[in-house]
Amino acid sequence: MPYSHHSHSGEFCGHAQDALQAIIDAAVEKKMQVFALTEHMPREQQDLYPEEIKAGHSDETLLHLFRRYHTEACRLQALYASKINILIGTEVDWIRPSSKDFIQNLFSNFEFQLFIGSVHHVHGIPIDYDAKLFADARRLSGDSTERLFEDYFDLQYEMLKALQPPIVGHFDLIRLKNEDPDTSFVTMDGVWQKIRRNLAFTVSYGGVLELNSAALRKGLQEPYPNAEISKEFLGLGGSFTLSDDSHGINQIGSHYREILRFAEAIGITEISYFERAAASKDSRFPGVITRNTAVSGMQNHPFFTACKAI
Question: How many CB atoms sit inside 10 A of residue 192's CB?
Answer without folding.
Answer: 19
